[in-house]
Structure formats: C-alpha cells, structure tokens
C-alpha cells in the first residue's frame, strides 16, 4: 500500500449499516484526487488540471450518496467539504439525530450497534438489516427481533408532549439499553 502523502481530509460518517471512514487525497502539484471509503479506493483521478470541483461516490450497504467539494480558499489553499445525501455533514448529522436512534451494547463479549430508522421502522444491527415483527400494544408499538439468541424489542411510546413525540426504547432480555450518542 503506497503511503498516503497527499491526504488532506478524513471524515467519519455514521450510517445505519455502520460508521464509515472517508479519506481524501488531493495532490495539488500532480492534480491527483483519490477517495477511499473504509480503506478501499473508490475514485482515482490523475493529472486533473482543474484543482477545484466535486467528486461523487456512494458509501455503505445502502449506497448513500456522498460528494467531496474542493474549493479554492486563497492562493494555493483549498477547503474540502463532505456532503451526504446532498446535505453538508453537519446538516446530515443533525437530521440523522431526529430520524434515527442508535444503541451500542455488548452481548457475550461481542459489540453490537443497533440502529432504528424511525421513518421506515427498519432495524439495523452491525451493518445488516434485521428481520423484525411489529405489534400494537396497549401503550404503543413493539418491534421484535433477535440478536445472537437474545430477544430484543424496541418499544415506541408517545411522550404525551408534541415537541418530544414518540420515545423509542431498546429492551434486550428484559433490560433497558441506554441510547448511544454518536
């Protein structure tokens, strides 16, 4: 593996199927642009005479759209910004906090990252979309699934407050798991 001498930016992006590392090399003398996702080369361009512009690619199992914008700041200084699904990384993260819940737990010595996509009620565990069974209960809904022979349930209950909306709680083997902050 050749040493990344022109590495100018590294981002970590939390998607439903996991946290992905995006690295960008920009050779301002050679005109080289290389995008790596999780250590794998996605784009390589040599001898680009235009040093500013945009590189688009996808990330993760869900093929989420991503783009790196290259802008000249002054002289030979450049600014690199990452967009996910057409939003700046900051906007994407803020939106994601509203549309997903994430829990990190350890079962039998193995770490699991469970993500609930609130709009679709899809549940992801360590990069895999889970088979789930939903049911209506007296105070809301329950979404049942299994992780490593452990019974899991995400309870959705109204907070009774309009601003708060629905509260989602993960219960594994009858124990409540605190939500992770990514």
Name the features.
Fas apoptotic inhibitory molecule 1; FAIM1; 6% helix; 2 domains; FAIM1_dom_sf; five-stranded antiparallel sheet; mainly beta; Lipocalin; 62% strand; 182 residues
Structure description:
The structure is a single chain. This protein is mainly β. It has two domains: 7-85, Beta Barrel (Lipocalin), CATH 2.40.128; 94-177, Lipocalin (Beta Barrel). The protein has one helix and 17 strands. It has one helix at 89-99; strands at residues 7-15, 18-27, 32-37, 40-45, 53-59, 64-74, 77-84, 87-88, 100-107, 110-117, 122-125, 128-129, 133-137, 140-147, 150-158, 166-172, 175-177. The strands form four sheets. Strands 13-14-15-16-17 form a five-stranded antiparallel beta sheet, with no helix packed on it. A four-stranded antiparallel beta sheet has the order 1-2-3-4, with no helix packed on it. The relative contact order is 0.12. The mean pLDDT is 92. It is found in: Cytoplasm. This is Fas apoptotic inhibitory molecule 1.
CATH topology grouping of the largest domain? Lipocalin
Main β-sheet description: 5 strands, antiparallel
Mean pLDDT: 92
The CATH top-level class label of the largest domain: Mainly Beta
Order of helices and strands: EEEEEEEEHEEEEEEEEE
Report the uncertain regions. none
**Architecture (CATH level 2) name of the largest domain:** Beta Barrel
Radius of gyration: 20 Å
Strand order of the largest sheet: 13-14-15-16-17
Tell me the overall shape: elongated
**What is the strand tally?**
17
**Strand portion, in percent?**
over 45%
N-end to C-end Cα span: 30 Å
């Amino acid at each position: 593996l050749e040493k990344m001498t022109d590495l100018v930016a590294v981002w970590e992006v939390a998607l439903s199927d996991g946290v992905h590392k995006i690295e960008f090399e920009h050779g301002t003398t050679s005109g080289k642009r290389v995008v790596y996702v999780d250590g794998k080369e996605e784009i390589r361009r040599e001898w680009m005479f235009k040093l500013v512009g945009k590189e688009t690619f996808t990330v993760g199992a869900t093929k989420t759209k991503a783009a790196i914008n290259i802008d000249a700041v002054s002289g030979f200084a450049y600014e690199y910004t990452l967009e996910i699904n057409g939003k700046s990384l900051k906007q994407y993260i803020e939106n994601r906090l509203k549309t997903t819940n994430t829990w990190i737990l350890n079962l039998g010595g193995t770490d699991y990252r469970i993500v609930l996509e609130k709009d679709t009620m899809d549940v992801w565990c360590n990069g895999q979309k889970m088979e789930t069974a939903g049911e209506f209960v007296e105070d809301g809904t329950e979404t049942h699934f299994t992780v490593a022979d452990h019974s899991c349930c995400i309870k959705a209950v109204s907070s009774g407050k309009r601003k708060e909306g629905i509260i989602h709680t993960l219960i594994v083997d009858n124990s409540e798991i605190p939500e992770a902050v990514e």
